[in-house]
Design brief:
About 0% of the residues lie in helices and about 50% in strands. It is an all-beta fold. It is rod-shaped and about 120 Å long. The termini are far apart. It is found in: Cell membrane. Keywords: Cell membrane, Disulfide bond, Glycoprotein, Immunoglobulin domain, Membrane, Repeat, Signal, Transmembrane, Transmembrane helix. This is Ig-like domain-containing protein. Its main location: membrane.
């Protein structure tokens, strides 16, 4: 109040409003989180200020959040609230989350919270049976998902650990924070390179390996040797041919310098031809060895 001591006295009342920019309350704000896949986490973010700050969540890489409530899950770019519920978290939710506090009084503030989701290794193999002609380059591929990041390596046909040299090259490409593509390139394929190769992945939560069988493809269109690919994960052996389907599926990929792509159905009638491709894939939905399509697997 401002007052002038006159006769009569004069006064003026004014209102002073104090505003305060946001500031995080660190004891009530989450730090970095490491959590097992399938369990639950709750990210908390609290800030002081006047007026009370608005708390907004978003992912640093711009991907959508999974917003959960009592009955459903939805995807959104942002979420407003002090607590971000992450019930039954999945590996796809791994990453950096931003908590942004603002109340119209600059500056707005943000905090980075890194969420790491741990799980044992899983291997996916695009082609578990490969055949190639001599003196060509052959590429074996395995896709590994794991966190913490695993140790990955290749085993040769005699069970020896393979290293890069003039004969073969080994590459790893990071596709996601938890996914790595393993590639083994064999230069100038020959008789000695035939056999079963293993890609192996290990981290602190487990180990897994998957087999890739490599055969020689002859000029007359025959494969010298034939067998089922196997996949072993966590000590469990299973035929990849019948892992998910009700009826077994056998697949073999043949690589030649110039070839045509054929797909054979159950009655062995060609369904599709695409010229000038670099691979022949033959899929047989019923494994019946006496029928042997076009004697392709018979020598």
């Amino acid at each position: 109040m401002c007052q002038i001591n006159t006769d009569p006295m004069k006064s003026q009342i004014g209102i002073l409003k104090v505003v305060v920019s946001p500031d995080f309350i660190h004891d009530e704000t989450s730090g970095d989180v490491i959590i097992n896949e399938g369990t639950s986490a709750y990210l908390k973010c609290k800030a002081s200020g006047r007026p009370a700050p608005r708390i907004e969540w978003r992912r640093e890489d711009g991907t959508e959040l999974i917003v959960r409530n009592a009955t459903s899950r939805t995807r959104a770019r942002t979420y407003v609230g002090h607590i971000l519920n992450m019930t039954k978290i999945s590996r796809s939710e791994m990453g950096v989350y931003l908590c942004i506090a603002s109340n119209g009084i600059p500056p707005a503030i943000s905090k980075r919270i890194n969420v790491s989701v741990t799980f044992p290794p899983v291997i996916q193999v695009p082609n578990q049976l490969l055949a190639a002609p001599e003196r060509t380059a052959v590429t074996l591929e395995c896709n590994v998902q794991a966190y913490p990041r695993p140790i990955n390596y290749w085993l040769g046909t005699a069970g020896e650990m393979l290293l890069s040299n003039d004969k073969r090259r080994i590459y790893e490409t990071m596709a996601m924070p938890y996914e790595v593509q393993m590639r083994l390139i064999i230069n100038s394929f020959n008789e000695e390179d035939k056999g079963t190769y293993q890609c192996v992945a290990k981290n602190s939560l487990g180990a897994v390996h998957s087999n890739i069988r490599l055969y020689e493809y002859e000029d007359d269109g025959r494969v010298k040797k034939y067998g089922l690919a196997e996949n072993e994960q966590k000590g469990q052996l299973s035929n990849s041919a019948s892992e998910h389907g009700r009826r077994p599926l056998l697949q073999i990929t043949l690589r030649t310098p110039r070839a045509t792509y054929h797909t054979f159905s159950e009655n062995h009638i060609p369904q599709e031809r695409v010229p000038s491709c670099t691979a022949i894939m033959i899929a047989i939905t019923t494994i019946t060895f006496p029928l042997l399509v076009l004697n392709l697997f018979l020598i």
